[in-house]
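Handout, section B. The chain below has 92 residues.
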Amino acid sequence: MVQSYYDPNLFKINTSSENVYNILKAYRKQYHDTEVITKNLKNNSYRNTIINKEIPEDIKPTFIEVEKKKEARYFPNPFKNWGPKGRAKEIK
């Protein structure tokens, strides 16, 4: 999986849609209750059949939470009252 160059929320993959479904199902089953997932699904809907289909053993992913470092968005001011000053005035 590779992040797309024109949108940071898009990814390019070279696998089947079934494998993507399996990864998403494994993530939801690991972090959410099964009752919450299937609460609003009809019994004969295609969504219900996708969610209830078993994930093959060779495709089961493992998820690791990565701790993000909080970084400063902007550089700190080099000294007090630093920044744009008033407009230059002409002295006569």
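Note. The helical segments are 17-31, 34-38, 46-52. Compare this with the example in section A.
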